[in-house]
Model the fold of this input.
Amino acid sequence: MATYVLRRLILMIPTLIGITFLVFMIVALSPGGIGAALRHQGGSAEATSIAAQQAYLEDRYGLNDPAIVQYLRWLGRVSPVKFGQRDQIDPTGAVIRSPRKLEPPAFAGKWYAQGAVPTHPPPPLFEFDPMDGVDERASIYRRADNQYARARTAYIAARTELEEAIGRYARAQGVAEPMNRTTRRLQMSAVRGLEFDPNAEGARPVIEAGERAIEQYRNALEVRAELEGIFNAEPFRKVGLPIIPGIMSIGPPDFGFAFSTGRPVIEIIGSALPITLTLNLIAFPIIYIIAIPMGMLAATRQGTWIDITSGAFFVALWSIPVVWAGVLAVGYLANVNYLGWFPAAGLSSAEAGDYPFLPFQDADGVWQAGFLMDRFWHLVLPIACLVYTGFAVLSKQTRAAMLDNFNSDYVRTAKAKGLPERTIVFRHVFRNSLLPLITLFATIFPAMLSGSVIVESIFSINGMGKMVIDAINLRDRELLLANVLLIGATNMLALLLADIMYALADPRITYD
Amino acid sequence: MQNNFGVKDFVLYVLVFVALIMMGLSMWQDDRRFEQTRLAAEGTGELRTDVIQLSEAIDQQTRTLEEISRRLNTLNSSVNTLRQSGVSVSRAPAGTESPAIPGDDAGELVEEEAGLTEEDFVLAEDERDESWARPGYPVTWPTRYFILTNDPEDLPNFQRGGTITEIFEANTPKITPHTHNDVYNRRIVDDVVCEQLAGLNPETLRLEGWLADAWQYDPEGMWLRVRIDERARFSDGRPVTAEDVQWTFEDFILNPQIEAAATRSTLAAIESVNVIAPRVVEFRFSEPRFSNLSAPLRVSILPKHFYSRFTPAQLNSATGLLVGSGPYRLQSLDINNQWTPGNTLTFVRNERYWGRRPPADRLRFTFVSDNVARLTEYENGNGDIMRASPEQLADRARDPQFTSRHNPLYWTNMRSGYGFIAWNTGMRGNRQSPFHDRRVRLAMTHLLDRDRINRDFYEGIAEVATGPFPPTQSDQSIEPWPYDMDRARELLAEAGWIDRDGSGRLRNENGEPFVFEFTYSSGSTFAEQVFNYLRDQCAAVGIQCVPRITDWAIMSTITDQRDFDALTMAWSWSSPESDPYQIFHSDQIEGLGDNWIQWSNPKADAVIERARQTLDYDERLEVWREFHQIVHEEQPYTFLLNIPWIRFVNNRIHNVHPYQVGIDKREWFIP
Done:
């Protein structure tokens, strides 16, 4: 058994890598790409500044690298096993990495700056004053970091200008599409074979822009080396545990920041997950408590009016679309012009922050709901919408499984033994009917984490479902991947759990 | 078998479970209450130390003293005037000044004088000190933003107090200034908590001094010197200084480590920001642009002493770090327990506000994304103002029960926008689209009965658009092209599109049929209705119109690649002046600009360039109107409708006026 579980757990790793890789590639290859969705948020800005903004995003998130490199970089961050130099963590909790290497501008050393393309200088040896406390070290590092950010931005601006100049030159030379219209960068595959004629039209601006870009490049490299030197002097605590010093270490996974909001992914999921869990932890027991006894009742009274009406009623409920029911519930049950019994949106009233926990009497002696009741009051309609479609499947499953067992030999034996009907139903038949319910649970459990998009949108609840949909619409890669990882892992764990529970419930099943 | 699990056991377990949950919840609640008590005790959280409180108290005292001495001076001068002329010309309104004679109790004075009045923002000619300015250049002494168009305090039933709640239709992910660029973030930050150097007059849309009381703008457009009102204070009582302005620009917005790329891109022309004197700051620009005056003046100024204690990474991921000098402040602010998206946002009046006190005690913003639920929440009385859809407006405006309690408003203002059909006038791949011919584009416009589009698809509340400009910038004398099928046929025939084989389909001289693709985004009902109507109209004259429905995120790829024949979209205006450069100048075709219709018109280019170099507002307006005329003649877009703002406002709120800037909540009060 233990080997089996261990094998299953190890097999999860390649499966998860496969899932995230697929999702990553779908996002990377989808039309528009990540940059486009980000750009849309900005609304209308001047085209030149859009280019600058785009360059900034690309530089920050490395969106210009090949998709596979981007994926590996993401995997490296998320994986608990890390390679290479260990990251550091500053007092505010932010992870600090060694600055990435810069790439020289296109055609440097060939079209311009012949033989004078600067290379990355070795980082100077930097040592902190042993008297320096954490704050001094942090401020020295931050100053260098800021300087590098500014130098890099200046370089990227110069590089963008250079690439536009090259684009114009290439167009004059008859290249139809020298620029990639999505990434707004030079299409290297289109211009690689281009011969450069310093006397041709449009060549002069290329050389001039090139010289400027090289100048900025050199400056950026110098500032970067300085920063790297400071980083190597370890201003902050290192992250994780070393396994092979300098080569391999174990550290916490870093899910990064959501593109669309700049907030840490963990924080976003951390605020949505409890809400979805609350909803589902209330909704699922309700479904089980109603559906299973009704299924049992229907099975024991097979063919009577109870069986028929409960079946018909549950199937009727099951076939009402949630969108419609939700809107009707809001329109009639929540609108004061009609019934107005329940609140229409959100999870608590606007004033709930000032309420005490339990119901209380206000200054006029009127009873007020209090925080807890107010929260429950807000939960009634969303939970009703989550619950009503679930009865049919579960009660029918229970009914079918019970009927199956009613016709088996051991029930006949038990009846012949003279056991009371109650004992037969509860102790024998129901226990043996649990197997299909376990299977069902394994598929339902992951759904508890993924949330319901429809219910959450109708009732303005910021749960997981809404978050994932927003992430997909904005092509928010980091958020999406973290979600896929979370839900994928829960799914597999739930399946594993179901398999183990099978073995426990049915002694005939073994995995050895 | 003794392990019988009976009903009794089940009930027992359930009870234990519920008890555990209740215990957990009450512990959580206790934490919450403890937190509230702590915050209440500490004012704005851990950020305020005793020392700061002390210095604030001193500041407050100084201010009171300044106030008293200033009042005394005023009194003296009016007494003098009285002596000279025998007529009282007291400048402060009655009731606030008369008892303020020397020897009067200062404490009582403070209570009455919490907040300045309109009169305090009128500066007489001889009070104007120009020693801070560059000599030889004219100084602008603008009217002040505090002089309201419809002053509520003049109304008989005026009263302070109450809470105004606005229901937003989407969640803003952050309220930290400048780090996120959406309309809700900007509305909260710019209008409620932070102040800019200058604001826009709601009606005339001219710049008015807000934090700034005077500025000096280089006639060449290369520098701008601004003086800050000496009374201006942040909500923690510290004065607003030139250093704060410099820091906001150089170390916050223009700092590449801060994720303020969207705001940064509008300020690209700023070369440096220099402190000239404690209250005088000078911007230098790298090139003269017409927006050089308004762009820096309209940026929210942040307190350096607060924001500079955070690292860029902290600022980038902060959701609720918001402190400013504006009329309201966050009820509680704690870096470790910030506001997070999805929760109600409550702002309380900044009692230290240096300007005019707004009437309402609190402003509240809630978020309801679903259309039906939002209207329900609003009608249930949980909101005072909300944005409605045209259908909701049409439905509710007919309902007397609704209109007796609520005020349905709709109007076109500088923040609304226009819907249009864009014609690709250049090459799509290797194929020239039929719309490169002006006559064809004009014919398409004539084919559409835009009044009917307004009536049938927009409930008749929009206006037919004639050009790309907001009402303040456009040439109002231009009449929209009329709906005229015959004229359309004529124009098409002139352009060579004739029914050559009697099949009813238009063909050009090469015998190619007139077929085009119409692209629209799948989410928009309006676009779909426009498409259906256009297709019918086209079919009536023998043109085939094929739909192409795409996801909104893919729209930008399509436009970037110029891969369409015609598409429909909407642009929004965001300021009193829209710059057509990025959409209509031919420079923006070749690169990756927004002139994706590839419209090139040398005359239009020249006019745009001329306007961008014209620094005088009124002169520039004339040039914009010239451009409007050209666009109208050329029809690179078929302008459909100017889409109005629709707002429902509860009748309990008084003094609500729709303006060109949108609405001015500073005027609202609850009697």
Notes: Chain B touches chain A through 73 residues (CB under 8 Å).
